[in-house]
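for the recovery benchmark. tokens below, seq after
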């Protein structure tokens, strides 16, 4: 809008320029029979006559100040004022000559042509008479008159006219041959432009009907307005329809101009997608379209408005047309830069049109009377612009088609990849089913092996008991203690092996909770790993607080810690490992650190997040992270956390947090436990008859079942894992009630 205001101010400033005065002497134009007259600009004199229409008085005109034309363009300044033009000619040849004096204008509010006869003026052409105007325009295409001069005869021609759109008047004196040759050329040019515009119009309508793209429709509308304006600017609409309505001719001209501008602006909005790509430019285009439509709507009543209003409306028509013409090249350039170089014809076409329209507006309004004007160029310039815009549309469609082909190829490729992935997924599903079947078979074997191993363990325990009762001279008490600890740990291994098999089989939620001291958890692990660490010249240090009672599943915890210590042993070459256990705000904190080579940050992040990765990326020994992953699943199943706190080239530190830990525990009865767990069904497995009755009764309830027993053997775990939700190992304590697994009973339901 700022551009429009600037243009309006510029026009108003120029309109205030005073007319140039000149001498009142009339120059004589010599004509020669059979030859065209030279350019008439330097021989023309004119005067401005404000006021009402009346027959001009020759003496009064000659007695007043006369102005002359500056430059080669015959232009009489800003429109709206009555203008009197004087031209004195003489036949300088010895033979009679005939010429045609043509004005090149056909749409004038008031036009009369006189020939001086002494001091009087004889009316030759009176275009205020509709019949005369129609006959004159039909014969000559523009207001014209035959000029017949005898040898050496002089004649003064006086033309009086009023124009409200432009005072440009390309006066020419031509022979009949030249006149009709120019007329035929003009008709051919107009016909070519119109045919070309109509061809593009039909093509764009065809493209619109095929593709459905609205930009083709708006371009067709713009070309229709352009074709009509070309026909009108050359006077053909005036000749056949508006010969007696000059003001209507002005209204039609402005209507066509504004229609073309609005259609081109809307085409730009649709084609460039300014609402999405250039929001600010889109607002400007909307404003210009509304302005153009408003000017078009008031044109039908133009003859009813005062002269000042008519001039303002005509100026507004030029302003909106120039505004659109100047704005479009900037949008075209931005579109070419952002949307693709294939839009270069858009910028070139709009730039050429903008230059011509801006120039035509200034020249037409008479602000610079010396500017040359060639209205015949409007047709070729407009046609060139339409061709460029249509070319841009074609190139853009070609790009869209090319991108569509690429997209289709990519889609076909992705479809093939999806099919391949689907086939791979099918194979993996089959392999998974086979693996699960194998795992189930292995689990069955583990259960059987565990049961058999229990017999060996019982025999080993019996032998240890006999050794302890016998006081054999030379016996080694330390050796007996080691055998007893090893037998206990072997029992724990068998138990956790069976539990691990249950976890792998999908029974990952079965837990047997019990209260035990921290030393009872750590000491068997120390005895198990002390000798292997010493053989590798590694140290294994243990720091366990005395006042830590843990409520958890001891065998599962030992399995998890054994996996972590095994990793420390495997990936530590010098130094050793350290285990600490402490109590912190009702939680047991177990820290395992080593002096190994550490692991990369991405590997550590993957392990902490539950992903599978190698534990040491720079070691020659391959690792899958399965030991750490198994430990992490067990700890999380027990509602604890397992995290690698740090890992550098100097070692790794792992932190385990277990809930429900305290300095001591308070023993309670099974009934008290049942009273405290209102959302559980508590059954005593050691009371078999009551247990079976209670288990049968619980089938109809929605509460989960908690079994309480002294027996933490593999056989008992396996049996109860099929019957109840969870197991509590006697003696039970009050602190057991606060364990997250028992507090989250609603999740089990």
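predicted aa per position
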């Amino acid at each position: 809008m700022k551009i429009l205001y600037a243009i309006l101010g510029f026009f108003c400033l120029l309109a205030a320029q005073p007319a140039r005065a000149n001498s009142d002497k009339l120059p004589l134009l010599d004509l020669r029979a059979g030859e065209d007259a030279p350019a008439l600009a330097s021989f023309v004199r004119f005067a401005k006559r404000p006021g009402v229409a009346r027959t001009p008085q020759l003496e009064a005109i000659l007695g007043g100040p006369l102005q002359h034309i500056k430059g080669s363009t015959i232009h009489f300044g800003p429109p709206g004022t009555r203008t009197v033009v004087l031209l004195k000619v003489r036949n300088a040849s010895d033979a009679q000559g005939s010429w045609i004096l043509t004005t090149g204008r056909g749409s004038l509010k008031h036009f009369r042509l006189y020939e001086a006869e002494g001091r009087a003026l004889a009316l030759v052409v009176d275009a205020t008479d509709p019949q005369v105007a129609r006959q004159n325009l039909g014969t000559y295409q523009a207001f014209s008159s035959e000029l017949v001069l005898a040898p050496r005869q002089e004649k003064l021609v006086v033309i009086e006219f009023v124009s409200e759109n432009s005072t440009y008047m390309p006066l020419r004196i031509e022979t009949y041959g030249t006149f009709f040759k120019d007329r035929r050329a003009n008709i051919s040019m107009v016909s070519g432009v119109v045919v070309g515009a109509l061809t593009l119009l039909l093509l764009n309508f065809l493209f619109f009907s095929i593709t459905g793209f609205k930009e083709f429709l708006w371009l067709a509308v713009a070309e229709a307005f352009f074709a009509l304006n070309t026909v009108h600017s050359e006077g053909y609409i005036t000749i056949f329809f508006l010969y007696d309505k000059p003001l209507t001719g002005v209204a039609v001209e402005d209507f066509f101009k504004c229609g073309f501008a609005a259609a081109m602006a809307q085409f730009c909005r649709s084609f460039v997608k300014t609402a999405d790509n250039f929001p600010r430019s889109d607002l400007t285009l909307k404003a210009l379209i509304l302005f153009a439509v408003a000017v078009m709507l008031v044109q039908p009543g133009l003859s009813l408005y005062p002269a000042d209003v008519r001039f303002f409306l005509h100026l507004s028509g030029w302003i909106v047309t120039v505004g659109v013409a100047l704005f479009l090249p900037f949008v075209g350039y931005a579109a070419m830069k952002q949307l693709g170089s294939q839009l270069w014809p858009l910028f070139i076409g709009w730039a050429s049109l903008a230059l011509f329209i801006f120039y035509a507006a200034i020249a037409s309004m008479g602000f610079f009377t010396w500017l040359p004007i060639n209205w015949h160029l409007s047709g070729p310039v407009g046609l060139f612009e339409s061709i460029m815009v249509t070319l841009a549309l074609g190139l853009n469609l070609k790009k869209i088609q090319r991108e569509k082909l690429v997209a289709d190829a990519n889609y076909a490729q992705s479809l093939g990849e999806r099919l391949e992935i689907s086939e791979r997924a099918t194979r993996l599903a089959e392999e998974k089913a086979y693996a699960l079947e194998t795992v189930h078979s292995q689990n069955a074997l583990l259960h059987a092996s565990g049961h058999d191993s229990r017999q060996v363990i019982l025999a080993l325990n019996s032998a240890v008991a006999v050794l302890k009762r016998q006081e054999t001279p030379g016996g080694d008490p330390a050796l007996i203690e080691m055998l007893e600890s090893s037998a206990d740990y072997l029992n724990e291994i068998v138990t956790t092996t069976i539990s691990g098999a249950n976890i792998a089989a999908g029974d990952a939620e079965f837990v047997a909770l019990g209260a035990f001291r921290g030393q009872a958890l750590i000491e068997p692990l120390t005895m198990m790993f002390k000798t292997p660490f010493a053989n590798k010249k590694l140290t294994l240090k243990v720091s366990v607080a005395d006042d830590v009672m843990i409520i958890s599943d001891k065998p599962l915890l030992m399995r998890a810690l054994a996996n972590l210590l095994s990793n420390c042993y495997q990936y530590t070459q010098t130094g050793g490992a350290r285990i600490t256990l402490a109590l912190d705000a009702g939680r047991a904190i177990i820290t395992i650190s080593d002096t190994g080579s550490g692991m990369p940050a991405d590997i550590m992040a993957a392990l902490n997040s539950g992903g599978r990765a190698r534990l040491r990326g720079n070691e020659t020994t391959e690792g899958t992270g399965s030991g750490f992953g198994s430990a992490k699943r067990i700890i999380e199943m027990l509602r604890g956390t397992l995290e690698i706190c740090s890992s550098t080239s100097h070692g790794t530190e792992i932190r385990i947090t277990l809930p429900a830990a305290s300095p001591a525990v308070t023993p309670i009865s099974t009934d008290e436990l049942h009273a405290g767990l209102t959302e559980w069904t508590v059954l005593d497995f050691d009371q078999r008859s009551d247990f079976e009755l209670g288990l049968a009764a619980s089938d109809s309830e929605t509460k989960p079942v908690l079994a309480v027993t002294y027996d933490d053997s593999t056989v008992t775990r396996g049996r109860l894992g099929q019957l109840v939700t969870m197991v509590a190992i006697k003696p039970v304590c009050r602190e057991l009630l606060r364990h997250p697994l028992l507090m989250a009973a609603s999740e089990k339901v």
